[in-house]
Structures are given as C-alpha cells and as structure tokens.
C-alpha cells in the first residue's frame, strides 16, 4: 500500500472482483468498498461512520494548535448534542450554504477567481518573447494565488508574499512527515526546511487574522473566522487553523486544473471545439477587447463540462474514508447479504476502482482507463443495473 497507493486497490479488485472486503494492515482492519451497491449501504450507515474522528488527529500534527484550541475544535465532535453545533459542524454547514451552485456568494468568488486568472494569463509574453515553462509549476502558482485571493480578498497573504505558495506546497507534499513528527522541536531537527515553511505560512495566516483582514475577504472567509472566534479561539490560533481551509481550497483544484489542461491540449480537435464553446461565451467591447461571461461556462459549454468531469474521474478521485465508531452491519440492497464492520476500524470507498469499472464507464469507443471528453453523461437518464437489479446513476460516482 505504501508503495502503490490507491493503485493497490485496483490491483486487488481486478484479481479478486470483490465489492467489499477486509484488508489487514499494521494499523488494524480496513474495509475496502469497490462496488456501487455496497457504497449505497455505506452511506445508509452514516450515523456510526465518522469523518470528524479522522480530522481530530490532524489538528495537532498538521495545524500545530495548542491544547485549548484543540478542545474547542473537538467540542460536539460527532454531533452528540444533535444540534450540529461546534466549529467543525458549523463550518461544514457554512461551506455548503455559501458555495451552493447559483448562490450570490459563489458567483462573487468565481468572478474574483476569473479576474485573477485573466490577469496572469494576459501577462504572458506573446510572439518572439515566449519561452518554455514547467506547466505544473505555473499552474500551481497562478491557481493557488487566484483561488486564495478569491477567498481571502485584497489582503490575501499568498498574493502579498508569493513565496508562500511554494511553502504551502512543501507542506502539502510532505504531510506524512508532519504526522510522523508532530512535535515542533522534533520536526525542526528532522525536516528543518519543512518546519520553516510551515512557520512562515503560520505567521502570515496569524497576521491576516490578528489584523482582521478577513473582513475584506469573501463571505466564507468572514463567517468561518467569526465561527472560530465566537467559540473562544484567539485570533492567532484562528489564523493558524486557517491552513486547513487553504488545503481544502487548493489540494484538489490545482491538480485538476493541471490534468485538465494536459488532457485537452493533447487533442487538437478537442481543443479547437472547446475554444469554440468558450468563444461563444464572450462579448466584444467597443475597444475591440473580449469579456468572458463566466456564468455561461456552466450553462452553455456541455463539452467543456464533460471534459472537466472526465478529468476529475481519472485524475482527482477522492477515496472516502470513515472511522467505524460502533459495530456496524451493512446490507447489500439487492442481495440482502450483510457484512459486519468492527468498531475501531476504518472503512473506505475505493473511488479510484469504481471510476475505472467498465460496467459503469465503459464504452465501445473508449475503455474506462482512457480520457474521452465526450464520454456519455446524462444526469436524468444515465441509469445502470449493477450488482443485481439495483438502479445506480453513474453520476453518483463521479463525485465520491
């Protein structure tokens, strides 16, 4: 598992064809789900399967929060009071509310994001002034700065000090070291560059919070800060905790953007068709310039959206993991077969496996392991019969 990562699950599935099985590791049991029907059973048992129990250990290892702040974060951790109060629950509900498609707050964030992207792209040299660049590095920097500016506003620390972008990705790519050496003094000895990078990011985020620069940020930045502060966190610790929000913003966005550009640029016909779609979403100004109406990208660009979904299917699947709080019995919705998940174990939906299954995404024109922007995707009619007679919409498994 350490060597192959998520590919290990794919190898096991193609060898044994099991929709649910137990994997014994040095850390205990893991239950791996690689079937849409067992995934349905997994979601129906959500009351005894916890995500927040997995979040809690990261608060100290990654965010370096003090004991008092950790206690605030873990209050009502699994909604024991039944009122969805507490930092984790309230910020979760905030994100769902302010970033819901079609909301004014999301449109405002998107507008700033596209304006920032346009600034970077328009600054690129043209003609004889062009020079080669590393696509991953370039995408990482402009998407990181544009995304964080859209959330944190004109005082975005990552835009004011661009070197923090490299510091952030140093942290993101070495998370395993933070878990192995959670004590700052030990981390400073074992991985001094990583320690210093995190300290610089912490300092910038603490300053952002202490000077109340979040009041000029997006609704998400303002309200998430108020939630933490109203629960009793200091401004310094609230700013330090902001690193978790930065991770949520960037860890999927940057890789997805990189792979989208890579896949689409490799196909000249596809690229031409995408440009035609996007061009239709622009308006010409009096001074012979063009303005992109960003909201039309979702409603008027079916090929663009299909290509993005296909990119996410192949390059950015998220394996959903939960901690089993109590012995939990899953029941297969078609066969009635049951499977017991033991308390204290981990259960994980192997999305990487499901996204490669021919019975869901296969097509005579392109096997599921290949990128195909035109892969059929009909939200209203895409129903597949899997594992018996259970109807499963293929759309459900693009976003697991």
From TrEMBL:
It comes from the Eukaryota. Its cofactor is heme. Keywords: Iron, Metal-binding. The keyword Metal-binding applies. InterPro entries: CYP450_monoxygenase_sec-met, Cyt_P450, Cyt_P450_E_grp-IV, Cyt_P450_sf. The keyword Endoplasmic reticulum does not apply. One of its GO terms (molecular function) is iron ion binding. PANTHER family: P450, PUTATIVE (EUROFUNG)-RELATED. Belongs to the cytochrome P450 family. This is Cytochrome P450. It comes from Hortaea werneckii (Black yeast).
């Amino acid at each position: 598992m350490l060597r192959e990562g998520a590919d290990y699950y794919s190898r096991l599935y193609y060898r044994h064809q099991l929709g649910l099985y137990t994997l014994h590791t040095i850390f205990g049991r893991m239950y791996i789900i690689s079937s849409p029907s067992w995934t349905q059973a997994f979601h129906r048992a959500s009351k005894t399967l916890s995500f927040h129990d997995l979040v809690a250990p990261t608060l100290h290892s990654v965010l370096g929060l003090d004991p008092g702040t950790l206690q605030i974060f873990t209050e009502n951790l699994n909604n024991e009071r039944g009122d969805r109060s507490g930092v984790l629950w309230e910020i979760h509900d905030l994100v769902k509310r302010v970033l819901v498609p079609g909301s004014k707050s999301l449109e405002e964030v998107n507008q700033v994001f596209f304006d920032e992207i346009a600034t970077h792209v328009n600054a690129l040299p043209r003609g004889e002034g062009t020079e080669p660049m590393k696509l991953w590095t370039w995408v990482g920097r402009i998407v990181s700065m544009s995304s964080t500016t859209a959330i944190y506003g004109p005082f975005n620390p990552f835009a004011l000090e661009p070197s923090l972008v490299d510091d952030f990705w140093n942290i993101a790519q070495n998370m395993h070291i933070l878990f192995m050496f959670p004590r700052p003094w030990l981390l400073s000895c074992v991985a001094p560059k990583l320690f210093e990078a995190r300290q610089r990011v912490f300092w910038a985020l603490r300053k952002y919070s202490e000077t109340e620069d979040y009041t000029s940020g997006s609704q998400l930045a303002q309200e998430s800060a108020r939630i933490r502060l109203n629960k009793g966190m200091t401004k310094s610790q609230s700013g330090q905790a902001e690193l978790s929000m930065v991770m949520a913003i960037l860890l999927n966005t940057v890789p997805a953007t990189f792979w989208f550009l890579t896949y689409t640029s490799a196909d000249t016909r596809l690229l031409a068709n995408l440009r035609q779609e996007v061009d239709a979403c622009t308006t010409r100004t009096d001074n012979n310039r063009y303005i992109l109406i960003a909201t039309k990208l979702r409603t008027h660009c079916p090929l663009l959206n299909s290509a993005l979904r296909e990119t996410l299917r192949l390059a950015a699947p998220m394996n959903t993991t939960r901690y089993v709080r109590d012995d939990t019995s899953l029941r297969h919705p078609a066969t009635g077969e049951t499977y017991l998940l033991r308390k204290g174990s981990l259960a994980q939906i192997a999305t990487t496996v499901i996204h490669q299954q021919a019975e869901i995404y296969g097509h005579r024109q392109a096997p599921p392991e290949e990128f195909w922007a035109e892969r059929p995707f009909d939200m209203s009619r895409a129903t597949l019969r899997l594992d018996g007679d259970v109807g499963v919409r293929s759309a459900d498994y693009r976003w697991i």
